[in-house]
Amino acid sequence: MTSYAIFLGCTIPARQPNYELSARKTLEKLGVELVDLDGFTCCCPPPIQSINLESSQAIAAYNICLAEEAGLDIVALCNGCFESLAMVNAALKKDKELKTHVNEVLAKVGKEYQGTIEVKHFLQVLMEDIGLEKIKANVVKPLNKLNVAPFYGCHSLRPSKLLQLDDPERPQILENLLEALGATPLEYRNKLKCCGGLLKGISDDTALALAREKLMNTTKAGADCISTLCPFCFVALDIGQIQVKSKYQEVYDIPIMHYSELIALALGVDPEELAIKSHKVKADKVLEKIA
Amino acid sequence: MPHHNTKENANMSFSEEVTHRHGGETLTACYQCGTCASSCPVARLDARFNPREIIKLSLLGEKQEILTGDAIWLCTSCFNCQERCPQDVEIADVIYALRNIALEAGNSPNIYADFASALIADGRIVAISKFVEKKREEYGLPPLKAVHVEALNTILSATGFTKPEKKEASQ
Prior knowledge:
CATH architecture of the largest domain in chain B: Orthogonal Bundle
Helix content of chain A: 40-55%
Number of strands of chain B: 0
Strand content of chain B: under 5%
CATH class of the largest domain in chain B: Mainly Alpha
Number of helices of chain A: 14
CATH topology of the largest domain in chain A: Rossmann fold
Radius of gyration of chain A: 19 Å
Order of helices and strands of chain A: EHHEHHEHHEHHEHHEHEHEHH
Distance between the termini of chain A: 31 Å
Largest interface: A-B, 66 and 67 residues
Strand order of the largest sheet of chain A: 2-1-3-4
Largest sheet of chain B: none
Structural class of chain B: mainly alpha
Number of domains of chain B: 2
Number of domains of chain A: 2
Distance between the termini of chain B: 36 Å
Oligomer: heterodimer
Number of strands of chain A: 8
Shape of chain B: globular
């Protein structure tokens, strides 16, 4: 059986049981064992890298050490966690001088980074360990009636030199995984541009303007929902619709669905078990098209 | 590539100070083509932010303007510019280096003090309430594992992490 250390991060356990439930149930159904390890801390994403890049790298390395000790690869659900950990893992494997320096720091907490494990995004586990054919064979409720706007966010793809999830300009992994469920992935303007999430609390107006563009462009393309991979993109676009309504007097009413939710539903998991009710924009329109 | 941050000294120009930092190493390769600015999702919407301008000001040694202005904080770290730079300037990483320097000089938006406080106290940047922990049981989710907060704080100290202070009048 394939086993992974699941890296939950901060935002998913704090605010998005819908992401965690759907990801766990999906991987369980597809025969992947998830191990909850002791000790994982914050991954140290961009806001912490902005304070001190060196501290952030060392803390990411510390977390990788915990998985190394358990002999497990890491699966991250959140784009932020994936980026922080995968970036440092790739940099430390390439750069001996950086590794020596980080290990001097880690020695103070009794750890040593070895470079023996992989950090994977949830999508990579689906694509590389399970594969499209096996996913297709397990779909019991095909999403044939759904036109889906795939939204990668930023930190699943970039910086691509270190993350290597897919081509950063023309990615296909999410489109292929949507098609495997029977859904139709749509093209739309500025598909690969940011949701604005990381500007919240710094420039709320600019953050919201970015989210609004995404809602506008996906709606124009005729999407039934937007499929996200990241808790920050999800919040920016879900709660964002309430804020867009009050600031711009525009109503989009487009459900935001994590890819993990779409695949769990297609694999036949009961929506009642997925905390989909926690969405601010109700997902009923999507659920009706799957039933 | 230097990995020990070299703090400013009197003989160092600002661009040297940046290139001696984690993330700042590639600054001087920029030839100002503007590919970054035309790839930037923020520059289209917010006149205060232009990555090419930030690089230019850093190269010209306009330290005060960089460190006390709004601009460096408006990058979303989306890495579009970094992907496309023909000179392999790691622009988003240079901006991290500039933020690290600004923060040590006492300039940062207040939200960073909140992130740092949460990280130091709980080892997480988003707090998890007792209510949410209890909810996990109802959902059938496994209980959350302990976070190694002490080790994290040891690492923060060993790497010179400065906790940003809130400014009363800012924002």
